[in-house]
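Throughout our pipeline, every protein is held as a single compact record rather than as scattered files. The remainder of this section carries one protein's record, kept here as part of the documentation.

===
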Amino acid sequence: MALADGRRAKCAARARQAVDQLLTDFDKSELRKAARARRKALSRADFALAITPYAEDLNLKPGTVVGGYHAHGDEADPALLLARLVEMACVVAFPRVVKDQPLEFHLVPDGDVLEPGSFGIPEPLAHWPRAKPGVLLVPLLAYDAHGHRLGQGGGFYDRTLAALTVPAIGIAYAGQETDSIPHEAHDRTLDMVLTEQGIRRFPKSLS
C-alpha cells in the first residue's frame, strides 16, 4: 500500500509539473491534457468515502436542492456525499446536457435510475421533474488558490454557473490544485472546494 501511494505521488508530482509548465501560455487544450493526466494519477478508490464526513461542514439547510453529478471516468466521485446529504434532508438533482445551454437539473423519480446520455454519462430523462439547485457541486480538471477552475472545455458548467447565482462547490482531489488557472474577468469562481483533506473556502475579494 505504501509503495502504491509512493508511485501515485510521484506520478501526480510529474503531472503537476507538466500542468504548471503550461500555465505560462494560454493553450487550454494542452493544459487540459496535462490536468487529465494528473487527475488520473491522483484517482483513489476511497475518495467518495473520504469526503463524506465533511457533509455537515457544508452547512446546508434541510430541503436545500443540491445540484449533484454522476462521476465519469476518474472524476472525483461525490456519490456517498450526496447520499449523506439526502440523509440530512437535502434534495439531490442531477444535470442533463442541453446543447449550447446551461445544464438542466432534474429530480430522480422513485424507482427510476439515470440513463446514459450525452457523452455516455448517466443523466436524467427530459420528462422527469425539473428542479433549481440552491447549491452546485462542480467537477473539474484543476483549480487554483483563488477558486478559478479548469473544466472539460464544453462550457456546460461555465454557462450554468453564469445562469445560477448559487454557491458553487468544487469536488476534487487535493492534488488537483495548481498555481494559477488562466481566466477572464467574467469567469465565475468557486465558493469553495471539497477534497479528501476537507473544505477550503475562497474569499471573494481574491481574483
